[in-house]
Amino acid sequence: MTQQITVLGATGSIGQQTLDVVARHPDRYRIFALTAATRWQRLAEQCLASGARYAAMTDPAAAELLRNHLQAAGSDTEVLAGEEALMALAAHEQADTVVAAIVGAAGVRPTLAAVEKGKRVLLANKEALVVTGSLFMDAVKRHGATLLPLDSEHNAIFQCLPEGGVDGGVERLLLTASGGPFRTFTSQQLAQVTPAMAVKHPNWDMGPKISVDSATLMNKGLEFIEACWLFDVTPEQIEVVVHPQSVVHSMVAYRDGSVLAQMGTPDMRTPIACGLSWPERVESGAQRLDFTRLAGLDFEAPDTARFPCLSLARAAMESGGTATAVLNAANEEAVAAFLAGKLDFMGIPAVVEQALERQAAPVCGDVDAVMEIDRQARGLAGRLIEERGC
Ligand code: NAD
Ligand code: MG
């Protein structure tokens, strides 16, 4: 039977690559719904190419433009608007699989809407899990959702784990990090990094927010938290290893000394295809790894003095409660300010650190309460950014 797929964040880097994989297998996958924030022209092209039954945009004005455009083109795609519409399409009974590829905490509610209907959820939107943590994982269990990680590291770990998860003799998880474009920069050089420099990643072609996160190593910090929740391990069971070539996508170390690695070229279509087809395997379109042409594989410890975001994320995870939601909210605000030229590069960890120090992070029993913490942390981060200036 064909799987009906909703892609949340269809116009982004992960969304587009998902559509690329889906289009290779019209016999297996059909696009049910596509959603995006504002880029209606891109969404229009995607609707026309995929024959999506529904499309939704958070921005009502963009949705109107999309609707007019699709009508003029004779398309049958029905266009909806607002966050509620995204949630409805994520939860729709005809959607079997939901690809969660919105960037940031904006993805929390639509992703949870899919989880709460017990869908097969392919998670790229790591921030949703970082923000809601145990609430998210409890909802997965309670509603019988199937959660498959698309983040390349977590997808690699997922593939290397034994069937029963970490209880099957696993000692630790080795999370690999490319080290980002400024891995060899001195502190003085890091202070001069501009947005244009930060959005260009050496190995991966990604959206602007995650590119900056990769440059500060906050991406690895968020992934560290994501791994704790996904695989039910303690912070002590995860080791971050810098591996500049991004060929080994992560590893699992076992009690007997064995280490299993998942490898491949750095192409997100591999974990996307894995998530779509699991436990089967389908063609992804990714270039194959040619071992005879690999110059070498290097590994080194991360430098948390030059890249403090990794330590901040670890500390937030260890302190518990909603500290990881505060970390994420402050980081999102700081990255947006950096991209807008209102904050210097090293201002990002500085703002996150101060937000964590100043904002209380209680344990919250529901998503509304966590989103209120997120809102407060954004307000605080905004004030800290203004104080620091640029
Ligand atoms: P992107 O910026 O390229 O795309 C983001 C998508 O989210 C777009 O479709 C946009 O319309 C939508 N969006 C943005 N704000 C929204 C809002 N407020 N409400 C609803 N939709 C909104 O981002 P990306 O690089 O594709 O990353 C998406 C997610 O996947 C992120 O959480 C990122 O960390 C994760 N991820 C990305 C990659 C990658 O290679 N790009 C790899 C691993 C994980
Ligand atoms: Mg990753």
TrEMBL record:
Gene3D superfamilies assigned to the protein according to its UniProt record, in alphabetical order: 1.10.1740.10, NAD(P)-binding Rossmann-like Domain (3.40.50.720)
UniProt entry tagged with the keyword Manganese: yes
Enzyme Commission number(s) from the entry: 1.1.1.267
Names of required cofactors: Mg(2+); Mn(2+)
Keyword presence, Ion transport: no
Binding residue positions for 1-deoxy-D-xylulose 5-phosphate: K126, S152, E153, S178, H201, S214, N219, K220, E223
Catalyzed reaction equations: 2-C-methyl-D-erythritol 4-phosphate + NADP(+) = 1-deoxy-D-xylulose 5-phosphate + NADPH + H(+)
Binding site for Mn(2+): D151, E153, E223
Protein origin, superkingdom: Bacteria
1-deoxy-D-xylulose 5-phosphate reductoisomerase C-terminal domain ranges (all copies): 147-231
GO biological process, one term: isopentenyl diphosphate biosynthetic process, methylerythritol 4-phosphate pathway involved in terpenoid biosynthetic process
Residue ranges constituting the 1-deoxy-D-xylulose 5-phosphate reductoisomerase N-terminal domain according to the UniProt record: 5-133
Record's keyword terms, sorted: Isomerase, Isoprene biosynthesis, Magnesium, Manganese, Metal-binding, NADP, Oxidoreductase
GO molecular function ontology, one term from the record: 1-deoxy-D-xylulose-5-phosphate reductoisomerase activity
Domain DXP reductoisomerase C-terminal: 263-378
Enzyme class: oxidoreductase
Residues given in the record as NADPH binding sites: T11, G12, S13, I14, A37, N125, E127, G207
Pathway given in the UniProt record: Isoprenoid biosynthesis; isopentenyl diphosphate biosynthesis via DXP pathway; isopentenyl diphosphate from 1-deoxy-D-xylulose 5-phosphate: step 1/6
NCBIfam families recorded: Dxr, PRK05447.1-1, PRK12464.1
Family under the similarity heading: Belongs to the DXR family.
Described function: Catalyzes the NADPH-dependent rearrangement and reduction of 1-deoxy-D-xylulose-5-phosphate (DXP) to 2-C-methyl-D-erythritol 4-phosphate (MEP).
Family matches, as PANTHER family: 1-DEOXY-D-XYLULOSE 5-PHOSPHATE REDUCTOISOMERASE, 1-DEOXY-D-XYLULOSE 5-PHOSPHATE REDUCTOISOMERASE, CHLOROPLASTIC
Record's protein name: 1-deoxy-D-xylulose 5-phosphate reductoisomerase
Native source species: Alcanivorax profundi
Record gene name: dxr
